[in-house]
Design a protein that fits this description.
Blueprint: H1 7-22, E1 29-30, H2 31-38, H3 52-64, E2 68-73, E3 76-83, H4 85-89, H5 93-105, H6 110-116, H7 126-137, E4 144-146, E5 158-160, H8 180-218
Antiparallel strand pairs: 1-3, 2-3, 4-5
Helix pairs in contact: 1-2, 1-3, 1-5, 6-7
Length: about 220
């Protein structure tokens, strides 16, 4: 199943997947709740500001592709929406978590995916992340791809193939020569960046909880 999602459609689909796993008590989502989820400042890259009309348009296209459906219940007059990713791809939970993170944040390294997807699936180690990525890459057609490694980094990034072509990392100039001192500096920088990413992730999770509570409270105002 070949998909070509716009950035907003990818954000809508990713938000629905995320909320089903992390806040099942508030799922499916109303149009208002889904718009707030798309515009979250935590666990999103880039941060967007989309209108309900844009989310509605994205939902219509996703519904046409059998990736989303509207649902109604007897105890609520508000139409709500849920994703149908499992019906389309029959994923295992690790694959769902990775696809969700790539839809919400764009290209990431296996280390970043392991940390950020832990709220949806607890990966035992990096090998389990690589195994899930490999299964997604071997799909017909492939659902993820590895990007060229950026200069000075140890890990390559992976991107989903459900939408626009993924960005390509700039290659190092032909005359660039790696030295031991440069390698040591790069390794040290990678360690610092990893620690900074972990702190940022903890902060974003706290902000996400605050956002979810605010959304929940608005439903009763």
């Amino acid at each position: 199943m070949q998909l070509t999602l716009t950035p907003i459609e990818a954000r809508v689909l990713g938000a629905l997947i995320e909320k089903e796993i992390t806040t099942p008590e508030y799922y499916p989502l109303s149009l208002n709740a889904l718009t707030n989820a798309c515009n979250q400042k935590s666990n999103r890259d880039p941060v967007l500001h989309v209108e309900e009309s844009e989310v509605r348009k994205a939902l219509n296209h996703l519904e046409y592709q059998s990736l989303v459906r509207s649902v109604s219940s007897t105890d609520s007059r508000v139409t709500k929406f849920e994703h149908r990713l499992q019906d389309a791809f029959n994923f295992y939970r690790p694959e769902v978590a990775i696809i969700c993170e790539l839809l919400l944040r764009g290209p990431q390294t296996p280390g970043e995916l392991r940390t950020r997807a832990s709220r949806m699936h607890a990966f035992e180690d990096l090998e389990s992340v690589h195994s899930a990525l490999s299964r997604l890459e071997k799909r017909e057609p492939s659902l993820v791809t590895v990007l060229p490694r950026q200069p000075g980094t140890k890990e390559a990034r992976y991107a989903h193939l459900l939408g626009d072509a993924p960005p390509v990392a700039p290659s190092a100039p032909p005359h660039a020569t790696a030295t031991r001192g440069h390698d040591a500096t790069a390794s040290s920088n990678d360690l610092v960046e990893g620690l900074v990413a972990e702190v940022a992730e903890l902060r974003s999770q706290i902000a996400d909880l605050q956002s979810q509570f605010a959304t929940f409270r608005k439903q009763f105002e």
